[in-house]
Amino acid sequence: MQQITAHDALRMLEEAFAVDAGSLAPTIARRDLPGWDSMGTLLLIAELDSRFGIILTPEQSNTMSRVSDVLDLLRAHGCLVDLQPER
Amino acid sequence: MIPSFERTSSLVARGLSTTRDELLANWREAHAGDVPAIIALREATAGKQERWDDAQYLSWRYGLGTTRRAYARYRILVHKGEVIAGIGAEEFTLRSPAGNIAAACPMDLVSLPEYRNLGLGPWLNQALFQQYPLVLALGANANSLGLVSRMYSLLPGRREFKFPVDLAPFLRRRIRNPLLYALISPIAMVAARTRGVWMTRHFPRRRQQLKHLSGFDATLDAALAHDTAASRISIMRSADYLNWRYCDNPRTSYRVLGMYESDALIGYVVYRTSSPSREPCHAQVADWWIAAAAPADTLSAFVGALLADTHHFRPAFVGATALGESDHEQLRRAGFISRSGDHNATGYHCEEPGLLAAIQSYRSWRLTDLGKDDDGMD
Fold first, then answer.
1. In 10 A of CB A4, how many CB atoms?
2. Distance between CA atoms of residues B149 and B304, nearest Å
3. Where does chain B have alpha helices with state H?
4. B8 contacts in chain A (CB < 8 Å)
5. Is B151 close to A55, i.e. CB distance below 8 A?
6. Which of B226, B267, B221 is nearest to B243 (CA)?
7. Sign of the CA dihedral A57, A62, A66, A72?
8. Could you tell me if B147 lies within 8 Å of chain A, comparing CB atoms?
């Protein structure tokens, strides 16, 4: 199983949601991320599947309201190696 | 990195608990029998359309339930017997120095709210990419801006222009000092009014005839055949296409002005006025074409006629959008002021390497609002 640090997970999400590198924090709400749209959702589904073998269901995706929800999902699958982001 | 269509299809299929083959088998062109389901889908997404008859709109735009020619097709995705998503595509020929290209412009993309977290929006766009050599996204709203900017190669420079008629709103935004505003605004407003009156009386020139047209005819096709603007990439116009697009449109009323010189058409302008509920009232130029040999002030003549036509409506400004330096220059020369905006994001998607190279080598485009689907949406 591939693992990732919180720092790198945030970098991954920055790419998926098309935000500037270093600008994403776990507390940021989905509604404040225009890039967490249908395209961002698709990229998240694809990344979780190809890198970690995690199947993100539409129901799970619907309930995600913050960046931390994605980190929690990674953690629940044992894919997140550190609990806190580096910054 | 955007996943391939095959990969996206697999992910979307998995989200629907089906297979990729089944997903693709349930993706098809809509027919007349689908109209009630499509209307229900559109209402579930955007609410009931009070301002137009949606069945009539679908019939006109996509030829659903009619034998009249339509220049667009609607495709739907059916899941467990229910239409869960759809996307329209207006089909046209893109004229380019590299030759004519079959192209389409996506519109009316909808999906049921409960299926929104599957990536259906990107998948529907990718499905269109499989159908047409080139797909052109013309304008984007807040919901589609992220998708357009990531799935399409953006064409910079599509700008919104305004010809101010009532200067008060413009001056209020720009002059914060009340004393300065009180000093400048009366002079500026008299100047603007004088300019408007001068434009309505000065044009057209003696040899020219400006006519209100109920539709386009063979004189347009004859004029376009001699158009020398082929060095730019633009949507190919024809009388039939423009009549469908503007004169038969059930969503809003357009007016057409044509300029003739010795019975030959040398230009046209299509415009509409904003809905009465919209403040400030304005007139919007949807499309125009002016022959290369026409006098440089032909657009000014059209604006003068448009101002005379809409005098009773008291528009605050005349709006237009354009992509292409020569059109920008033409608009500025006619007194338009430019401003940029995110909603004008325009891009193309092309997967054929030869075609892509040809398009990329010609950076000169000419795009108006022709092909855009926002008729009557203001």
1. 18
2. 37
3. 5-15, 20-25, 35-46, 54-62, 120-131, 145-151, 168-174, 178-202, 218-225, 239-242, 298-309, 325-333, 353-361
4. 42, 46
5. no
6. B221
7. negative
8. yes
Pick from A34, A45, A49: which is nearest to B146 by CB? A34
For chain B, the 3-state helix, strand and coil shares in percent, each to the nearest 5, are: 40, 30, 30
Output the six-digit token pair for B156: 């910079």
The tokens describing B151, both together, are: 């799935």
Q: Which of A32, A38, A59 to mutate to test the interface with B (most CBs of B within 10 A)?
A: A38
CB of B123 within 8 Å of any CB in chain A?
yes
| Chain B partners within 8 Å of A42 (Cβ) | 3, 8, 11, 118-119, 121-123
B14 closest CB neighbour out of A38, A55, A61: A55
The pTM (predicted TM-score) of the whole model is: 0.89
Task: Identify from A39, A51, A59 which residue to disrupt to test chain B contact, counting B C-beta atoms within 10 A and taking the largest count.
Answer: A39
| Contact criterion met (CB below 8 Å) for B139 and B346 | yes
What are the residues whose beta carbons fall under 8 Å from the beta carbon of B194, sequence distance 6 or more? none
Task: Give strand pairing partners of B29.
Answer: B75
Q: What is the pLDDT of residues B148-195, one digit of tens each?
A: 999 999 887 788 999 988 877 777 777 888 888 888 878 877 777 777
- What pairs with residue B232 in β-bridges? none
The two three-digit tokens of residue B112, written as one number: 């049921």
Picking from B279, B3, B312, the residue whose alpha carbon sits closest to that of residue B168 is B279
Query: Token digits for B143?
Result: 């919901």
ipTM: 0.90
